[in-house]
Amino acid sequence: MKEKVVLAYSGGLDTTAIIPWLKENYDCEVICCCIDVGQKEELDGLEERAKACGASKLYIKNVVDEYVENYIMPTVQADAVFEYKYLLGTATARPLIAKVLVDVARQEGATAICHGATGKGNDQIRFELGIKALAPELKIIAAWRDPKWTMDSRESEIEYCRAHGINLPFSADNSYSRDRNIWHISHEGLELEDPSCAPNYDHLLVLSNSPEKAPEEDVHLSIDWEKGVPVALNGEKMSQREILEKLNEIGGQHGIGIIDIVENRVVGMKSRGVYETPGGTILMEAHQQLEELILDRETLKYKRLVSVEFAELVYAAKWFSPLREALTAFVDKTQEYVTGTTNFRLYKGNIIKEGTTSPYSLYDEDIASFKTGDLYDHHDAEGFITLYGLSTKVRAMKLNNKK
Amino acid sequence: MKEKVVLAYSGGLDTTAIIPWLKENYDCEVICCCIDVGQKEELDGLEERAKACGASKLYIKNVVDEYVENYIMPTVQADAVFEYKYLLGTATARPLIAKVLVDVARQEGATAICHGATGKGNDQIRFELGIKALAPELKIIAAWRDPKWTMDSRESEIEYCRAHGINLPFSADNSYSRDRNIWHISHEGLELEDPSCAPNYDHLLVLSNSPEKAPEEDVHLSIDWEKGVPVALNGEKMSQREILEKLNEIGGQHGIGIIDIVENRVVGMKSRGVYETPGGTILMEAHQQLEELILDRETLKYKRLVSVEFAELVYAAKWFSPLREALTAFVDKTQEYVTGTTNFRLYKGNIIKEGTTSPYSLYDEDIASFKTGDLYDHHDAEGFITLYGLSTKVRAMKLNNKK
Amino acid sequence: MKEKVVLAYSGGLDTTAIIPWLKENYDCEVICCCIDVGQKEELDGLEERAKACGASKLYIKNVVDEYVENYIMPTVQADAVFEYKYLLGTATARPLIAKVLVDVARQEGATAICHGATGKGNDQIRFELGIKALAPELKIIAAWRDPKWTMDSRESEIEYCRAHGINLPFSADNSYSRDRNIWHISHEGLELEDPSCAPNYDHLLVLSNSPEKAPEEDVHLSIDWEKGVPVALNGEKMSQREILEKLNEIGGQHGIGIIDIVENRVVGMKSRGVYETPGGTILMEAHQQLEELILDRETLKYKRLVSVEFAELVYAAKWFSPLREALTAFVDKTQEYVTGTTNFRLYKGNIIKEGTTSPYSLYDEDIASFKTGDLYDHHDAEGFITLYGLSTKVRAMKLNNKK
Amino acid sequence: MKEKVVLAYSGGLDTTAIIPWLKENYDCEVICCCIDVGQKEELDGLEERAKACGASKLYIKNVVDEYVENYIMPTVQADAVFEYKYLLGTATARPLIAKVLVDVARQEGATAICHGATGKGNDQIRFELGIKALAPELKIIAAWRDPKWTMDSRESEIEYCRAHGINLPFSADNSYSRDRNIWHISHEGLELEDPSCAPNYDHLLVLSNSPEKAPEEDVHLSIDWEKGVPVALNGEKMSQREILEKLNEIGGQHGIGIIDIVENRVVGMKSRGVYETPGGTILMEAHQQLEELILDRETLKYKRLVSVEFAELVYAAKWFSPLREALTAFVDKTQEYVTGTTNFRLYKGNIIKEGTTSPYSLYDEDIASFKTGDLYDHHDAEGFITLYGLSTKVRAMKLNNKK
C-alpha cells in the first residue's frame, strides 16, 4: 500500500499542481485538506477539482469558530501588535491550519504533510513549526523548496498540469499576493514592492472602503465584554465569530483598519504589505478602551511588555511553544475583571470613544475630582513626594558638588 | 534683607493669589517667573499685573525652542507613548519649567521655589522632582498643600486678593481644567469626570476640528528627517519648532490627534482626560513610518520595550534621572540612520502613508520580491527551518509520549 | 463596648509597650496576635506576658507550612532575586502576616490593626499594603509613626511600661536589628551601617558557620522535584517545610548562603544588611540546575525578565496585587515539566553540581555530541546561517558605502 | 594570479588539514592567520609549520589588550551573564577574531575567509555573522560544512595531510573539546556529554584548583574602578589586561569561578559544558559590589533587564549589531559614576565582600540609620503609604464586594 501525504489544499493553481507532482515524485496517495478559516474562497466544486487532479480524498474543515475563539481572542486579550501596527492575521491562522493538517494526517495514518508556501516567506515556518510541535514524527514536504520541484512560473505550472492530464481553467494571474481569513486580508506585490510608492487603494482594497469613500454618516456601536472577550454587539448577544463578522462589515464600510507597513520577516528580510483588518481593529481598540478602566498602572505597563513579546513569538511561528502558553497564562489572569461595555462610533476611518462602563472600574470620581476626601488628603502628597523623590534628592546632593 | 522666593507664575487667579499669600506667610520677596513653553497665553500686561500684586520682579522666559529640541524630540525619537495613547505633552514640559525656575532662583539667590499645582495631580511631583534633581538645596513651597493655605475656591481666592488690595478682573471660571503648550492641550473636568460620558467635542476642542468638521479635501505632506528629527516640511528647511507649529495648524485643521483616555496618575488614582496633539501625532507617526525602513527587527523590538519604560519614567516625573538619561543614550544610538523622507496625507482624522524613502533603507526589493537571487536561495530556508525548529521538534519528541 | 484593635505582637519590648499605649490613646480593647513564620522565638509564657500588659487576648498562629508552600515556593519557582542577591526572606513573610492579622481582625470584629514597624523601613509598607489589599475597610495604626507616640528609645519604652504597671525584664539591647523566619535571618545596624566596613561575621552569624568554620568534609545531597517544588531530600519524601528545615541545618553547617548587600529600600534610601539563607540558597540553586535541563531557550530568557519583575514587586510590598498574581500564573505554566532530580554537594560555602536527571529533559545526547544524525545535518547550518545572518549582511551592504 | 583565502589558523590538526584542502578544492593561495586572544597556545614554530603545509603566509596577531578593553570590559560593565551563569568567554572572543580576519583579508586583497568551526556549534555563527557585518562582500568557506570536505575523523585528517606531503606529529586526541582565552577556558565532551554525571574535576581543570585543593589561607584583595572598569589591584595601577591576568592567577589558585551548566545553543540544541573563569568571576562580582553603592533602584532594575538582552545577543552572534551597540550606549551612561574601591577576600571558592567605598556613593548613613533627620521625617511615610497604596485600596474596595 502506498504511503499517504496530506496536502494543504486551496484549490488554486499552486496547490493543484502539487497533486500530480507529489504522486510522481513521492509515489504516494494524496489526501487534500482545505481548511476554512474564513477566507471566503469558492469551495463549491472543490471536491471534483481535487479528485480530477488525482487526489484520493478531499477534506474540507470549517474551523472558523475555533480560529476566532482559540487563536484570535487570546491575541486580542494580549493586545498583541507586531511592529507597531500588524494585527497578526496570517500569523494566528497558520498554526491552526497546521493543527488541522496534523489531525487529518493522524486520522488517515499519513506519514507526511505537504504545503505550497514560498521559500521566502514566514508561512512555511509557521506551518512547519506547528507540525513539528504537534507531530514531530511526521515528514514535511515543502513543495516549492523541494529539489525535485522544477516549476518556476504560473505558465510552467499550467503546462505541468496539462502534461498530467489536468485541464482546469486557471487564469494568468498578476494581481497582488493575498492571504485572507475572517480576521484580515493581506496584500503584497505589484506597486507595494517599492516602499516609496503609495498603495493604489482603488485597486487594492477588498474588505473596506477607503476613508474617503466611507459614508458621511457615522455609526454608533457598543460592545459588551466578559473577561476580555466580546459577548454582545449593540446589546445583542452573539458568538465571537458573529460579532467579528458584523464588525468586519460595518468597519469595512467605514474605512476602519487599513494599514500599510514595511515589516521584518522571520527569514531576515523586510517586506511591504497592506492589511485590511476592519473588525479586528475595532475589537483591539475597544478592548484597550475597557482595560483602561480596569487595569491598575503596574499591570497595564507590564502587559504592554508582554504584548510585544507575544506578538513577536506569534509572528515568528512560535504559537505552539511553552513561552507563548506561559504568556497566555499571564494574560488570562489579567482579564479576570475585563468586563463591561465600550461605546464608540465609527466615522471615515476613525474610532471615536463615547464612554465606557464596568462593574469593576477602578475609576473613582470622588478621588479623581478636585475635592479632598476620606481616601486621600492633599497633604498626604507632601509625605509621598518627600519619599518618592528622596533618592533623587540624595543623589543630587551627593553628586552635584562632585561633577 | 528678606529671603527671595521664585514663584512659577501664570498670571491666572491661582498663582496671583499666591503672591500676597507668600509675602504674608513667609515674609519674603516674591520673584515671579512666567515660562513660555508655547501655551499661547496673553503675556501682555503680565508685568504690571505681577507688580500690582506685590511681586518684586517678573521674569518672562521663552523656552519654546529648547522645549521642542531637548524635551519633545527625544520623546519622539523614543516613540514614547504612555498607556497606549498619551503623548506626554504635560509630562515633558514640567521638567523644563522646573529647570528654568531653578536657573532664576540661582541667578536671584533665592532660597525657595513656590508652585501652585494641585495636591492630587502629577504636576506637583514633576515640578518638585525636577527641583530636587537640579537644586536639592532649594526649599519647595507647594502653596495648595501648605497648611497655611486656606483658600478653597475661586471665590475665596478673589476675596483674599481684594483683602490684600488686589483688584483685578478675574472671571468666575467653570470650564475644563487645561494645560497647553506647543505640543498639546489637555482637558479635564466637567463631563469628562464621568468616564461613561462621551466628550462634548463641540465645546471642548481648542486646537482642532473634529474629523467631521475637517475639510473634505485631503492634504499631502512630506517630512524630511535627519537622525530621527524633522528638518524640513514639504521640502522646505525649517527649525523643529517651525515644523511643529506648521503641523499643529494643518493637523488641527484635519482633525488629527484627538484622544480620550482614562489614565493612571502617579498618585495612585485613575483620571480621565482629552488631549489634542495634532502636530505631535503626525510627527510620531511619521517617525515610526521612517523607522520601519531603517531599524532591523531586533532593534525595533527592543526599542518598543524601551519606549514603554521611557514613557513611564517621564510620566512619573523622572525626566532628570539617570535611567531616563541612559534610555536616551540607547535611543540616540538607534537614530543614527533614521534619515529620509516620509510622505503621507491627512484626511479627516486619518494619517495615510504615501511612500517612504531613505538612503539607509534596509528594504531590498530584489530579496523581498518572489525571485531567487544571490543573497538568498529558497533552499536555504530548508536548513534554516530545521535548526530554527529543532528545539521545538526535540521538545515534542521528548514530551509527547510522557504527557 | 470598646472597639477592638488587633496588634501584631512579638513579645519584645517595642510591641509590648504598644499595648498600654493603644489603650491609653485609642481607648480600645487590644487583641495581640503573634504569628509564627519560623522565627524560633521563645513563645513560652507569651500569653501571660501579653495579658500582664493589658491585652484582652493573645492569638498564636503557626503558619509556617502556609508560608513555605504559598509564599516561599512561588518565589523559588520564579527564581526571584532582588538586586542581584537578596532572596526576599522578609518581603515574602510580611504579606502572610498581614493576611493573618486581617483574618483575626475579622474573626474578632476589630476595627483596626496596629503594627510597630519603623517609619524608615519597607515592612510598614508591606504590612499596610497587605491590609489595604485584603481589608480596605480596616483602620491601620502605625504606632511608631503616630503623632501620639512619644517614646524614642528603649529606655523611654521601659519607662513607659513601668509607669503603666508593666514590670517585665527587658534587657538593654544594642545588638543588630534582625528579622528571622524559616527562610532566612537578616541583620542590620552596628558596623553594617558603614558600607566600607567588613561585617563582623564571628559576632553576627546566627544560622550558619562561616565558610572557614565549615567542616572539612563535604556532604552530598539530592533533591527530587515535581513541577518546580521539592518533594524529597536524599530520596526521602518530606513536606516542603521539612526539606527546608533540613537544608537550613545542613546548609548552615557548610557555610552556604551568607550575603552582604547594600540595597535600595522602597522608601528611597539605600541600606546595608547581611542575610543568612542557607536552605533557601540551596533550593534556588538546585531549582535553576533543574530548569537548565527542562526550559527551552526562549522560555528561560523571558523567565529571567519575569524574575526581576517578580522580585521587585514582592520587595516593594505588592504581593497581593494583580500583577504579582499574573506573573505567578506565567511562572506556574513554566513549571509544568520542572520535575526531576538534582544532585550536588556542599563544601565550605560552595554548592557544586553533581549531575541532574529528568524525564522531561530536552538535552539529547545524540544531537549534542559531535556526530551527524537524523535530526540535524551539519549542512543544515549552511542555510540557517544564511537566513539568520541575512539582515546583518544586507545592512552591511547598504550602509558600508554610506558611512 | 590565484585568489587569496584567509584561514583562521590555530596550528592544530583541524586547521592544518584545511590548508592543502583549500588549495586542492579552491585553487587558491592560503594566508594563515593566528589570532592571539590569550589562549596560551604554543606559537613557537607556527610559521614553519604553516609554510610546511603550503600556506603562502602566516600572520600572528596579538589582540589580547583589544580583547580585554573593547570586548570583555563592555560585557563586565553590562553585568552580562547568559542563562544564569555563563560569562560569555567564547562568545566575546569570536567577533574580535572575525574582525582581525577581515582586516587581514582586506590588507591582502583576499576574496574569502575560511574557518574550521564545527557545524553544530555557536562559533560558526559568530565567525560568519561577524564577517557578514564587517565585510559582506567576502565569501565565507566553512570547511567542515563544505560538501567538498570528506574527512570525518582525526585519523582521516592525518591521512589526508600525509597524502599531501605533510608529515607533522599530531597525537591521537581524545580529550575534552576546549576553548581558551584570557577570560576563560571551556570544556565539553567525554563524561560531560551525560548531564547526569558529575564532572571529573581532577581530570578536567586547567586554570583552577577545585575549592578543596585551594589554600587554607584566604587572600585579601582590593580593586579600584573608574567608570566601571578596573584601574588598580591592591592599590597598584595596572592595565586592564594585567589586572585580569593577576586575578586569573590568584582566583584560579583559590578555586573561584568554576561552573557546570547545560546551555541552549543558537542552533537549537542543549549542550553541557564546564567553564573556568577565575579572574572574570571576581571582576563581575566586584563590579556589582560597587554598583550597589552607586546605582539608584530604577537604574539597577532596568540594567538587569538590559543585561539579559546583552548576554542573549552576544551569545547569539550579534556582537556587531545595532542593538548591541545601542545597549552598550545605555550601559556606558550608567557607568558614569561607577568609580570607587571594592574590598573582598577569596577563600576556597568564595568571594567574600569586605567593604566598598565610592566618592559617588548614594548610601547616606544619616538617612539609613534609625534616627529621624532633615531629609526624611518618619511621618512622611504616612503620606507616602497612603498614596503608594491608594490604587491597592481602591481596587480592594471596588472588587471585594463583587467577587
In terms of topology, how is this protein built?
The structure is a homotetramer.
Chain A: E1 4-8, H1 13-26, E2 29-36, H2 46-52, E3 57-62, H3 64-77, H4 89-108, E4 112-115, H5 123-134, E5 139-142, H6 154-163, E6 177-180, E7 185-188, H7 201-204, E8 219-226, E9 229-233, E10 236-237, H8 240-253, E11 258-264, E12 270-276, H9 278-294, H10 297-315, H11 322-334, E13 340-347, E14 350-357, H12 365-368, H13 380-388, H14 390-400
Parallel strand pairs in A: 1-2, 1-4, 2-3, 4-5
Antiparallel strand pairs in A: 6-7, 7-12, 8-9, 8-13, 9-10, 11-12, 13-14
Uncertain segments of chain A? none
What coarse outline of chain A follows from CA principal-axis ratios? elongated
Largest sheet of chain A, if any?
Answer: 5 strands, parallel
Figure out the total of helices of chain A.
14
Percentage of residues in DSSP E strands of chain A: 15-25%
Oligomer: homotetramer
Q: Return the structural class of chain A.
A: alpha/beta
Level of helix content of chain A? 40-55%
What is the C-alpha radius of gyration of chain A, as a whole number of Å? 25 Å
pLDDT averaged residue by residue of chain A: 94
Q: Care to describe what's here?
A:
Chain A is an alpha/beta fold and 403 residues long. Helix content of chain A is 42%, strand content 20%. A 5-stranded parallel sheet of chain A has the order 3-2-1-4-5, sandwiched between helices. In chain A, helix 3 packs across helix 4 (89-108), helix 8 crosses helix 9 and helix 10 (297-315) runs antiparallel to helix 11. The longest helix of chain A is centred in the first third of the chain and has 20 residues, at 89-108. Chain A is elongated. The N and C termini of chain A lie far apart (83 Å). The model of chain A has no long low-confidence stretch (mean pLDDT 94). The interface between A and B is large, with 98 and 98 residues. Chains A, B, C, D: Residues 4-166 form the Arginosuccinate synthase-like N-terminal domain. Chains A, B, C, D: ATP binds at residues 8-16, 116. Chains A, B, C, D: It is found in: Cytoplasm. Chains A, B, C, D: Its EC number is 6.3.4.5. Chains A, B, C, D: L-citrulline binds at residues 86, 122, 126, 177, 186, 263, 275.
